[in-house]
Design brief:
Elements: E1 8-12, H1 16-33, E2 36-40, H2 43-52, E3 57-61, H3 69-78, E4 87-91, H4 97-105, E5 108-113, H5 118-201, H6 208-239, E6 248-251, H7 252-265, E7 273-278, E8 282-285, H8 287-303, E9 310-318, E10 321-328, H9 362-372, E11 376-380, E12 388-395, E13 418-421, H10 425-437, E14 442-445, H11 448-458, E15 462-466, H12 474-483, E16 491-496, H13 501-510, E17 514-517, H14 522-532
Parallel strand pairs: 1-2, 1-3, 3-4, 4-5, 7-9, 13-14, 13-15, 15-16, 16-17
Antiparallel strand pairs: 6-8, 9-10, 10-12, 11-12
Helix pairs in contact: 1-5, 2-3, 5-6, 6-9, 7-8, 8-9, 11-12
């Protein structure tokens, strides 16, 4: 810590002999009392010294030519920094009462008369120097106290921030724990139904009617599992910004109308009073992702509205936006939950025995998908039991007439031979059986090297290649097939559990014509094979969802 400066004493006198005598006298005690002496020959020079230094006391001669002592004192005390510096006037005669009053009015702290008595000067100077040192010590302590206060405030802020961050982390960990428990619950339910239905089909006394019902249960629950996996993957992609939108002009009224028709045909809206008003509006969007937005909002309304309730679906145009509103008369949203309904894993009810089910990620996905389309989402509710309203805003685009839309080639063509390269035995067997049921001749292989050998012998028209193969992966299989003149014209479809933009780029670079994401339903697979065997020359990338 730097040593503090010594207090300074300013001696002002126009007489050189008097000035020398006073400064010499003060210098005798300077070391003992720990102060420094500075001299000035005029009022003007005194003011310059005051501008440069702080003084413990000023010894000021009254009678000076030009600016006298009173004027100098007045000028010194007009400056804020030196306003409280004590001034001792030195005069050669006994001042009468009028002079004393004038001196005190100008800021005098005391008087000394010449000839100055050393003992009196020493006593007065000692008092003012000690006072200055005490004031400096108090200022130093005040600065230290202020710094400690600042440090404490800063430490307190950091502590409060750490406490809040810890609370947030605990809430997030709790939400994740609840989500994992819920995920296990949601996965076990359909798996249990599938396992039971499969066991039923293996019983010798199973009736044809029971077998049909068991098959429908397996199909329905497999689709449910696929939707759970899709939601998890889509949420992960959305949160990491890796969803790739395949944009095209879309009439959202027609799209949402088709979705509603599917809900009606499957009986999912049969127990509800459904009101629909859809005004035609076009957006530049991804059909699959727009369907997800609408389906998640409608699923949410159906999930939290008791049978017999009312669900209103409205699509209208507002300026340059298409606005979708889904309103229900269901359980509503509590005020404390309303700001968080679009957060990940948030649900109104989180117990395992709740009737609604689900993973609590649908609305989070809705918000992210709406934002990716340049839109926004809002939620509103008057409280528990008062229903809820969800509103999606999407930017409008120009309407596309029928004449501008591409026509689909529906010419029936002969079915090509198919090579299936898949290392999962059950998956390979089931896909081969499905393809055979649709009239395709199928050969299959369990790894990449075996698949290359079969391709050389079989010369298929289409090869379905799993990416995650043992030995050499699907990318290497595609590269080798493309490098061989005998197999370079085979149409290649990649099968993978990954659907990110990076995965699509890699399949194209490896030589694939199309990219399908597992699990692939048979309709999507048939469309993919047909699109590649109807004379299309350019490779394409598609993502199939169950």
């Amino acid at each position: 810590m730097p040593k503090p400066d010594k207090p300074k004493i300013l001696v002002v006198n126009d007489d050189a002999n008097s000035l020398f005598a006073l400064t010499s006298l003060l210098d005798q005690w300077a070391e003992q009392e720990s102060y420094e002496v500075i001299a000035a020959r005029s009022g003007e020079e005194a003011l310059r010294q005051v501008l440069m230094h702080d003084f413990a006391v000023i010894l000021l001669d009254v009678n000076m030519p030009g600016m006298d002592g009173f004027e100098t004192a007045e000028a010194i005390h007009q400056r804020e920094r030196s306003a409280n510096v004590p001034i001792i006037f030195i005069t050669a005669f006994v001042a009468d009462e009028l002079d004393r009053l004038k001196a005190y009015q100008k800021g005098a702290a005391d008087f000394l008369f010449t000839p100055v008595i050393p003992q009196i000067l020493h006593a007065k100077i000692t008092v003012f120097v000690a006072l200055a040192m005490k004031n400096e010590e108090l200022k130093r302590q005040a600065r230290q106290l202020s710094q400690r206060t600042t440090d404490l405030v800063s430490s307190n802020k950091r502590l409060l921030q750490e406490i809040e961050e810890r609370k947030v982390a605990e809430r997030q960990n709790h939400a994740k724990d609840e989500f994992l428990a819920m995920l296990g619950h949601e996965l076990r339910n359909p798996l249990s139904a599938i396992s039971s239905a499969a066991s039923l089909l293996g019983l010798p006394a199973v009736t044809p009617d029971a077998a049909v019902r068991a098959k429908k249960i397996i199909q329905r629950q497999s689709q449910h599992l696929g939707r759970i996996v899709d939601d998890l993957l889509d949420l992960s992609r959305a949160m990491s910004g890796k969803i790739l939108l395949n944009r095209a002009p879309v009439d959202v009224a027609a799209l949402f109308g088709n979705c509603l028709e599917t809900y009606r045909s499957t009986g999912r809206t049969a127990d509800y009073d459904l009101h629909v008003q859809l005004d035609s509006g076009w957006v530049d969007g991804d059909v699959t992702r727009l369907e997800q937005i609408f389906s998640n909002l409608l699923d949410n309304a159906l999930k939290y509205t008791p049978p017999g309730g009312v669900i209103d679906v409205m699509l209208e145009l507002e300026d340059d936006e298409v606005v979708l509103t889904v309103h229900d008369t269901g359980v509503g949203i509590a005020p404390e939950l309303l700001p968080h309904v679009f957060d990940v894993f948030v649900q109104g009810t989180s117990t395992l025995d709740r009737a609604q089910g689900g993973l609590g990620i649908g609305l989070s996905l809705v918000r992210r998908l709406a934002e990716l389309h340049g839109g926004s989402v809002e939620a509103d509710s008057a409280g528990p039991g008062e229903g809820s309203t969800f509103l999606i805003r999407l930017p409008r685009t120009e309407r596309i007439t029928e004449s501008n839309q591409p026509m689909m080639n529906t010419i029936e063509q002969s079915k090509p031979n198919v090579l299936l390269i898949e290392d999962n035995d059950d998956g390979r067997e089931m896909m081969a059986m499905m393809l055979s049921c649709y009239g395709y001749e199928v050969r299959h292989a369990a790894d990449g090297l075996q698949g290359l050998a079969v391709a050389q012998e079989y010369h298929p028209g289409v090869a379905l290649v799993d990416i995650g193969l043992p030995g050499i992966d699907g990318y290497e299989v595609a590269r080798r097939l493309r490098a061989d003149p005998d197999t370079q014209n085979i149409r290649l479809i990649a099968l993978t559990g990954y659907g990110l933009a990076e995965d699509q780029r890699r399949v194209l670079e490896a030589g694939f014509d199309m990219h399908l994401v597992k699990p692939v339903d048979i309709d999507s697979l048939m469309k993919a094979i047909a699109s590649l065997t109807q004379g299309a020359a350019e490779p394409a990338v598609a993502t199939a969802k169950p």
